[in-house]
Write a structure and sequence with these properties.
With about 425 residues, the chain is α/β, with parallel strands linked by helices. The protein has 21 helices and 7 strands. It has a 5-stranded mixed beta sheet with strand order 4-3-2-5-6, with helices on both faces. A two-stranded parallel sheet has the order 1-7. A hairpin with a 2-residue loop joins strand 3 and strand 4. The termini are far apart. One of its GO terms (biological process) is nucleobase-containing compound metabolic process. GO terms for molecular function: 3'-5' exonuclease activity; nucleic acid binding; nucleotide binding. It holds the Pfam family HRDC.
């Protein structure tokens, strides 16, 4: 289907109403769930031309793993392909050579690339339409919003939070999945033209490469501290109870491949840490724990709470998580006025640069990198020294070119200067 992009200059109330797209142009193809069907689909994709649109569906709110439960691909000449990696036991061997040296088009690629890598699917080149929208200075960059703005179509949505581990997949879910790649190539072309018009296409290519080559995020230190509502707890003993319950829940969730919140809600963990029940009767008297599923696991939760109570004082968790970065910025003025002055000057300068180039300031330079640089600046604060630091920390060349001079000046700022 040929889709023409709407000019960004025409976006506004006088633009025609978007066309609601409820069905893929070529219909919904059969799900590829056998080795023979996969081989045929791979051959069709290899014979296609141009970039390939790629998307995945996960079951984040239902399953512990972040695996892909459906992979959608679309390429000119091949049409749309829906692959069920579960039915194929994750063995998608014909696909990598079929897509070799092909540009992949994804929306919010960093969300999909890890589960694709688990299937040995890795792009040689990448175009991220969400990131393109951010670099173009668009305030809203969801797939539906960009498709409507740039192409004049409105996508039928509604199943993004569905349990994609369910089998068989309902037909309306497959329609939704196919539509997610239906217009990605046309959107890629429109966004490429827009970035070229703004003089940002080279910036985008650098960003796409950074996303493509990004290392997997390291495991979080003390992930149990992210339990919702934990801020209401004050004593180390209560924190130990949260940690014990969180770890017990995580084991169950991982073994059963269930989302942790479906095993035991965060709110119940915090409530149990506050109530500190000593017996099963005390535990099941608490909301949620009295349910049939939780009664079956009552001994597990009690065992975790008892283990937390038996800990020696020096085994209890610290009141706050270990922190290797700067303190909260609202404390800088008291703790290090010079650092506060540097940060104020840097933020002001970066905001002006971002505004001038119609960019989100967080895409200009990572806020954490700016904070760390201002808290402990390099010994050499010259343009050369700051360039080396930014490059070493992963900043792209376009970012360095735009920011290094102003950041170097900001690192020389003093409280007296910023007050003026």
């Amino acid at each position: 289907m040929a889709v023409e992009a709407a000019s960004p200059e025409t976006v506004g109330s006088d633009r025609p109403e978007p066309v609601l797209l409820t069905e893929p142009t070529d219909g919904v193809p059969p799900v590829v769930d056998t080795p023979a069907a996969l081989k045929a689909a791979a051959a069709a994709l290899a014979a296609g031309t141009g970039p390939v649109a790629v998307d995945t569906e996960r079951a984040s709110g239902y399953r512990y793993s972040q695996r892909a439960y459906l992979v959608q691909l679309r390429r000119e000449g091949a049409g749309t392909v829906l692959v069920d990696p579960i039915a194929l036991d994750g063995a998608l061997d014909p696909l990598p050579p079929a897509l070799d040296d092909t540009e992949w088009v994804l929306h919010a690629a960093s969300q999909d690339l890890p589960c694709l890598a688990e299937l040995d699917l890795r792009p040689a080149r990448l175009f991220d339409t969400e990131l393109a929208g951010r670099l173009a200075g668009f305030e809203r960059v969801s797939l539906g919003t960009l498709v409507e703005r740039m192409l004049g179509y409105r996508l039928e949505k509604g199943h993004s939070a569905a349990d994609w581990s369910r089998r068989p997949l309902p037909q309306d879910w497959l329609v939704y999945a196919a539509l997610d790649v239906e217009l990605l190539i046309a959107l890629r072309d429109a966004m490429r033209d827009e970035l070229e018009r703004q003089g940002k296409l080279d910036w985008a290519h650098q960003e796409f490469e950074a996303v493509r080559n990004a290392a997997p995020a390291p495991p979080r230190a003390e992930p149990w501290r992210r339990t919702s509502g934990i801020h209401r707890l004050r004593s180390p003993r209560q924190l130990a109870a949260v940690r014990a319950l969180w770890e017990a829940r995580d084991t169950v969730a991982r073994d059963r491949d269930l989302a942790p919140g479906r095993v035991l809600p965060d709110s119940s963990i915090v409530q149990a840490a506050q109530a500190n029940p000593k017996t099963e009767a005390d535990l099941v008297a608490l909301p949620v724990f009295g349910g049939r599923q939780q009664r079956r696991r009552a001994s597990l939760w009690l065992q975790a709470l008892r283990a937390a109570r038996r800990l020696e004082n020096d085994e209890l968790p610290a009141p706050a998580s270990p922190h290797d970065g700067p303190p909260p910025t609202n404390r800088w003025s008291d703790r290090d006025p010079d650092a506060a002055a540097r940060l104020s000057a840097a933020r002001s300068a970066l905001s002006k640069i971002a505004e001038r180039h119609h960019l989100p300031v967080e895409n200009l330079l990572l806020p954490d990198l700016v904070r760390r640089t201002c808290w402990i600046p390099p010994e050499d604060r010259s343009v050369t020294g700051v360039t080396e630091l930014l490059r070493d920390k992963g900043a792209r060349e376009w970012q360095i070119e735009l920011t290094v001079e102003d950041l170097s000046k900001a690192l020389h700022a003093t409280p007296a200067a910023t007050a003026d």
